[in-house]
Inverse folding.
């Protein structure tokens, strides 16, 4: 019987079946479950690296040693790994290496919706795009075969609707892993200029060979139909098949390089060509460059996700209103994601908000503190940016120095905060960095990292001591506070922002989803004046009902912040009674 | 005149992060698979799960292509406001199974927005067949407040053309043994509450 697998689970299965023995990555939606699934297979060593650059480098080392390797990350993670990737394209591989880039059109959980097909093209490496879970599994094997045949890393590019959609998948047996022997080859792997110049020529020759292969590649297929032609790839293929059921479709599974002759032949047999692709006009522009007349982004949006309705709207051959029963239009209250009840980030963000500080934010759950009522975030750019940006603020505007802090999570700090902090110390900054240490990578679903004392495979590991790390980087002022203690947080923030040297505040409390809840506080209804001060915490367990604070004991985790901010003492610490 | 052609049955399971829409979607998908149908499920993980609006889309039929639904045949709303939110993605005459529960979003809690009133009446007025269930009460009757999702799945089972054995096997496959009995009871109560359309009951396989 087939199994219902998400694209991510299917990719893990595909890696297992294809004989992958080493897998690395850094968590990031929508890629995270690839490694989580792969770690459960026997005979596979899988690890979280501190960031994507290191993950790819570990993968390259394993490939050099002769193993088949999978490296997984989200789209913006490939930016971090771009440095090794661009030169790896020159050196090529020993054991097959597939890099999974999980793009996020629509930005369900990302800061941009960059289209990584351009990165594969820039690197000059083959790229495969699956359109469902079965293809996601099968293409891992194909990618590794191509990698070894053409001596190149291969990108497998998914999007959120491939990564997180489930479909039925036929499982196969594992190919016995056979490690290729390691052979010293400085001209191939030592990229000093004299070697790299030769490898660049090899890289150009390889791309010619890949272009020839693309013409015959089995995952570029034509589905026969009428004289309307569709060129498409990835999940957009599925939408196009539903929206244009009669059309002749060229489904491209290999989208770098493109098969020029196949495209020309296809164009000769249809009357009109529509290019259905998500995000950028990646295929469209290359088809135009071949001299073909095509339509794409004039019909389909360049921003956000496609879906069957959006694609069908452009279907002028079968025009008619979509069969929706009700039209959107009325303004309903939004339900944005929020910091969980009991979230240890809330106490710090509340204090920063009350002190009206400028907050350089970072990537993690705490970014949710941007919303009212906390509104305690002035920036969020990329992993680790908070620290460098805080230094930049103080260098440009000394008057901001005592009113600016950087806020970053523990996992994000290990990912790319270390070098920023080093910069503050080296360049004699005075910025205050607040590390929100909840002991996990929370936003992506609680993955381990160098500070948790455990690996992806569940083994014990040395637990990196944040204080020691920070002191080792040259920071002399290091304070540890409990974010559930608002007075202590306020005192530390006031003190450290005033100090004329670099300082780090570590706000330490485990993620509230990882520990049992404490007793919910009680509201003394007679004492509550309905002032609403507690609502400034933005806690989903707290509401004012008929001008009296009400605590939802089912949601409450008993953090006690509301009783600390209550001006009339109406919210009493819980006594252990839970509903 | 239809512009999005498919022969699939399309179900939206909408709620608030943490309400159990994902397990409900798994049970439905498993039941459809056991009944020999092609199945696709789409959901979003990550940031959206932090108490925000969530939706699981399940499609089944002879051959399912898009993982996303164009317009759904059935909406299972785990929360009233989320039911209202997804009405624009329903077909004319679609079925709405509405859990009576309300969960105020942050803009309502802080007084920045008002929670809509009379949601069941609004949904009916738009011409949808509407079944309003007191999920929490039925779940409590089944033995656990957490079984609301299985109550709703039971009501959904009464609406869909999938055999009873597929549903009970799906529950066996996906619910941990310790919670199985409660979940079977919740499923049966939901199915019974859906009224005379209900077919055979779900019998736990021992």
């Amino acid at each position: 019987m087939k199994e219902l697998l998400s694209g991510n689970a299917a990719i893990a299965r595909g890696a297992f079946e294809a004989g992958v023995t080493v897998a690395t990555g850094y968590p990031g939606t929508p890629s995270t479950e690839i490694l989580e699934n792969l770690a459960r297979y026997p005979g596979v060593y899988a690890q979280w690296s501190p960031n994507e650059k290191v993950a790819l480098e570990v993968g390259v080392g394993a490939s050099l040693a002769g193993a088949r390797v999978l490296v997984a990350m989200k789209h913006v993670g490939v930016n971090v790994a771009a440095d090794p990737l661009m030169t790896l394209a020159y050196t090529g591989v020993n054991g097959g290496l597939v890099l999974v880039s999980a793009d996020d059109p629509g930005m369900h959980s990302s800061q941009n919706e960059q289209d990584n097909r351009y990165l594969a093209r820039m690197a000059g490496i083959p790229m495969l795009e699956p359109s469902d879970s079965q293809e996601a599994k099968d293409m891992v094997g194909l990618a590794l075969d191509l990698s070894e045949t053409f001596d190149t890393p291969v990108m497998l590019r998914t999007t959120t609707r491939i990564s997180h959609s489930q479909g039925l998948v036929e499982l196969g047996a594992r190919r016995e892993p056979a490690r290729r022997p390691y052979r010293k080859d400085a001209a191939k792997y030592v990229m000093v200029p004299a070697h790299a110049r030769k490898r660049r020529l090899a890289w150009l020759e390889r791309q010619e060979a890949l272009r020839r292969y693309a013409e015959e590649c089995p995952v570029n297929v034509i589905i026969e139909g009428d004289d309307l032609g569709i060129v498409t790839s990835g999940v957009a293929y599925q939408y196009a098949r539903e929206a244009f059921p009669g059309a002749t479709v060229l489904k491209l599974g290999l989208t770098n390089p493109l098969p020029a002759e196949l495209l020309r032949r296809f164009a000769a047999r249809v009357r009109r060509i529509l290019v259905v692709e998500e995000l950028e006009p990646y295929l469209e522009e290359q088809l135009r460059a071949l001299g073909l007349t095509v339509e794409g982004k004039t019909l389909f949006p360049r921003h956000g996700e496609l879906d069957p309705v959006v694609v069908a709207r452009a279907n002028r051959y079968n025009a008619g209103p979509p069969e929706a029963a009700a039209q959107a239009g009325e303004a309903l209250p939004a339900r944005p994601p929020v910091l969980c009840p009991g979230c240890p980030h809330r106490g710090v963000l509340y204090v920063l908000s009350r002190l009206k500080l400028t907050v350089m934010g970072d990537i993690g759950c705490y970014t949710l503190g941007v919303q009212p009522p906390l509104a305690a975030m002035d920036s969020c750019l990329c992993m680790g940016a908070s620290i460098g940006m805080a230094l930049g603020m103080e260098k440009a505007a000394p008057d901001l120095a005592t009113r600016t802090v950087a806020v970053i999570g523990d996992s994000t700090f290990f990912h790319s905060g270390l070098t920023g902090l080093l910069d503050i110390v080296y360049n004699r900054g005075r910025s205050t960095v607040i590390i929100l240490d909840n002991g996990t990578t929370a936003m992506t679903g609680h993955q381990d990292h160098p500070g948790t004392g455990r690996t992806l495979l569940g083994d014990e590991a040395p637990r990196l001591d944040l204080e020691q790390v920070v002191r080792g980087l040259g920071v002399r002022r290091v304070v540890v506070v409990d974010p559930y203690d608002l007075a202590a947080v306020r005192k530390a923030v006031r003190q450290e922002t005033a100090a004329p040297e670099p300082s780090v505040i570590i706000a330490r409390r485990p993620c509230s989803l990882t520990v049992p809840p404490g007793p919910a506080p009680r509201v003394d209804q007679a004492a509550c004046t309905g002032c609403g001060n507690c609502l400034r915490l933005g806690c989903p367990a707290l509401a004012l009902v008929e001008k009296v604070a009400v605590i939802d004991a089912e949601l409450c985790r008993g953090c006690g912040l509301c009783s600390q901010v209550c001006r009339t003492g109406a919210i009493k610490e819980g006594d252990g009674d839970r509903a | 005149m239809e512009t999005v052609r498919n022969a699939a049955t399309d179900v939206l399971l909408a709620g608030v992060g943490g309400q159990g829409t994902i397990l409900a979607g798994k049970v439905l998908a498993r039941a459809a698979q056991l009944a020999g149908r092609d199945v696709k499920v789409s959901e979003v993980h990550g940031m959206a799960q932090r108490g925000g609006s969530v939706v699981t889309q399940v499609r089944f039929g002879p051959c399912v292509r898009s993982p996303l639904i164009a317009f759904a045949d059935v909406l299972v709303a785990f929360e009233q406001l989320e039911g209202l939110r997804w009405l624009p993605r329903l077909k004319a005459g679609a079925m709405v199974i509405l859990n009576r529960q309300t969960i105020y979003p942050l803009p309502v809690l802080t007084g920045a927005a008002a929670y809509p009133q009379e949601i069941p009446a609004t949904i009916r007025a738009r011409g949808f067949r509407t079944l309003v269930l007191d999920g929490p009460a039925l779940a409590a009757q089944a033995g656990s407040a957490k079984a609301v999702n299985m109550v709703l799945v039971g009501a959904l089972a009464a609406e869909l053309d999938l055999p009873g054995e597929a549903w009970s096997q799906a529950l066996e496959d996906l619910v941990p043994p310790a919670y199985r009995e409660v979940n079977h009871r919740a499923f049966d109560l939901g199915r019974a509450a859906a009224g005379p359309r209900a077919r055979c009951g779900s019998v736990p396989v021992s």
